[in-house]
Design brief:
The protein is mainly alpha-helical. The chain contains three helices and no strands. It is about 75% helix and about 0% strand.
């Protein structure tokens, strides 16, 4: 190998290494951004989970009070409804498809009684 081709080879290798180093630095910056975003999302996820737990606790408390406040006849209607049957006026006794909720049945069971 002559000196000129050796020098050209080293120059080409140096240019390739610089390009590789530039790509590596860009990848490192991108990775850093991804890690930051991931950390932010994990923290936000945790806050949302805590908030959801709080909401579930608040939602459970009134339903327990509501169940205690139900009369015996409404508790029977609730039991029939939970077994998968309609208790509303129009569809009373028919099977609820796929146990989907029925707003009319829930209204019959949980509405405030008029005094």
């Amino acid at each position: 190998m002559d000196k000129r081709s050796l020098y050209d080879g080293l120059t080409q290798l140096e240019a390739e290494l610089r390009n590789t180093l530039t790509e590596l630095m860009e990848l490192k910056e991108g990775f850093h951004e991804i890690v930051e975003k991931n950390t932010t999302l994990e923290m936000e996820n945790q806050r949302l989970r805590e908030h959801l737990r709080e909401l579930n606790q608040v939602a459970e408390a009134p339903s327990e009070k509501m169940k205690q406040a139900l009369s015996k006849s409404r508790m029977n209607l609730e039991k029939i409804y939970e077994e998968g049957f309609h208790v509303c006026y129009d569809l009373y006794g028919s099977r609820r498809e796929n146990d989907e909720p029925c707003a009319f049945c829930l209204e019959v069971i949980y509405r405030e009684s008029i005094k």
